[in-house]
Specification:
It holds the Pfam family Glutaredoxin. Belongs to the glutaredoxin family. CC-type subfamily. This protein is α/β, with parallel strands linked by helices. It has helices at about 35-40, 55-65, 80-90, 115-120, 125-130; strands at about 10, 45-50, 70-75, 100-105, 110. It contains five helices and five strands, in the order E-H-E-H-E-H-E-E-H-H. It has a five-stranded mixed beta sheet with strand order 1-3-2-4-5, with helices on both faces.
Length: about 140
Amino acid sequence: MQQAIPYKTYTLPSTHHNTTNPQPPTQLNRSSKNAVRDAVTENAVIVLARHGCCMSHVVKRLLNGHGVNPSVFEFEEDEENDVVKEIEMIGDENGRNMQFPAVFIGGRMFGGLDQVMTMHISGELIPVLKQAGALWL
């Protein structure tokens, strides 16, 4: 079985300072205004999730198990509304009803954990990932 390359994590630039973790998380080198849109368009598979969300961990592990290297865009709970607004600007009409973690495949909203699991169980996830260029075999 192939091993996936570990995913990279993006976070919104924030004014919050975590004193328990002196090393800053990896951040996008862009303004936070277009950070979500840029991350979605630049990655074959990206998971948008609240920082520390256990369900996003499940999605990441499932995708890693298939050999996919999903990028992760983490944000704090108080930044969720800004993320939803930016997703709506991308053109996703489901932004208001979105639940996190949200998975984008090929620059389009794929769904949340329930959609990813449903497609995985039915065997339809692999072809979608291949079509997006996230899998080569």
